[in-house]
Amino acid sequence: MANNATKNPMKVITGPDTRWSYANIWEPKSINGGTPKYSVSLIIPKADTRTVEKVKTAIVAAYAEGQAKLKGSSRSVPPLSSIKTPLRDGDVERPDDPAYANSYFINANSATAPGIVDADLNPVLSRSEVYSGVYGRASINLYAFNTNGNRGIACGLNNLQLIRPGEPLGGKASPEADFAAADNDDFLN
Predict the structure, then answer these.
(1) Which helix (H) or strand (E) element contains residue 7?
(2) What is the pTM of this model?
(3) Domains of the chain and any CATH numbers
(4) pLDDT tens-digit profile, the chain (189 residues)
């Protein structure tokens, strides 16, 4: 079976320890009145050096491929170090959020719904299985953009593979956690 990642140097499949946050993957959501999009924040542990290096390599490939777009009407292409890139440091940008500690994160989005499968490649149909806090792989593509003077590398969302549940993010406890230690006493007494 051919590996699509070798055909497209800007495509990355993240490792299985990637955690999904702000998972707007069932319905597109509009941000600040913009075009509604499906999106997810991918939290990648810094210890997952393989995924981090694949993302960094894809950013460089997207920069090289998108030089004409990045140049626009300017005389020259801005250096990669001066433009926006999607790989962000959770320890720097989200120091008060423990979910982002010792991790990088990437916000990926798409105008079309991502395909979502489980570890056995069966389609995930139940929305309750996929929430902010689960772990899984993500198929993403990096590309150059130049819109209204903003230039950089962005991240598109292709597909998601749910690997395992995780503690829900956002302060909401799971029903299992709420009721695991429930007092079995008769509530009328």
Answers:
(1) helix 4-7
(2) 0.85
(3) 4-168 (2.40.50.140)
(4) 445 445 899 999 999 999 999 999 999 999 888 899 999 999 999 999 999 999 999 999 999 999 999 988 888 899 999 999 999 999 999 999 999 999 999 999 999 999 999 999 999 999 999 999 999 999 999 999 998 888 999 999 999 999 999 999 976 665 666 666 655 555 454
Collapse the DSSP code of 52 into the 3-class scheme (helix H, G, I; strand E, B; otherwise coil) and give the result. helix
Query: Within a 13 Å sphere around the CA of 128, how many CA atoms are in the beta-carbon half?
Result: 3
Tokens 């707007």 label which residue? Answer: 24
**Which residues fall within 8 angstroms of residue 6, CB to CB, at 6 or more apart?**
none
Degrees to nearest 5, angle at CA 13 with 102 and 69: 95
Structure tokens that stand for 72 in this block: 């626009």
Instruction: Give the side-chain half-sphere CA count within 13 A for 36.
Output: 8
